[in-house]
Design brief:
6 helices; Rossmann fold; five-stranded parallel β-sheet; 5 strands; globular; 48% helix; alpha/beta
Length: 131
């Protein structure tokens, strides 16, 4: 899975990354995100951004080496990269998370499934259960 987050989100993503690591994920991270993860004892593998040389994020997406992407928007400076990564994630059907809150919720779901606390259901299935 890939974690590349805006500076404002780096310290908040550390607990999420720790939980994902415990759940068995291999974490790829861009340079600055990797640095923060390393400082907080979360093992990750550095991956190049789109303009930093090959192989880069797009190569990992095309090769289907990523199963989940956490990418919080960087603002106007990273908008082109963010947009391109998002489009590729959609094209290759890779779940794409854009907020720390959504990443936290996703980790809770992953942990619950790993503990066999039910199985995933669609909103429509839950709606049918309401009486």
């Amino acid at each position: 899975m890939l974690i590349t987050v805006a500076d404002r989100d780096k310290k908040h993503i550390v607990p999420v990354a720790k939980r994902l690591k415990r759940a068995g994920f291999t974490i790829y991270a861009t340079k600055k995100t990797k640095k923060v993860l390393h400082e907080n004892e979360v093992e990750s593998i550095e991956i190049n951004k789109i303009d930093e040389g090959r192989p880069d994020i797009t190569d990992f997406i095309k090769n289907r080496d990523l199963r989940l992407i956490i990418n919080t928007p960087f603002g106007s400076s990273g908008k082109q990269d963010d947009d391109y990564i998002r489009r590729m994630a959609i094209q290759y059907k890779i779940p794409y998370i854009t907020t720390v809150a959504a990443a936290e919720a996703s980790v809770e779901g992953i942990e619950a499934i790993k503990k066999q606390k039910g199985s995933p259901r669609s909103l429509q299935e839950y709606h049918k259960l309401i009486k």
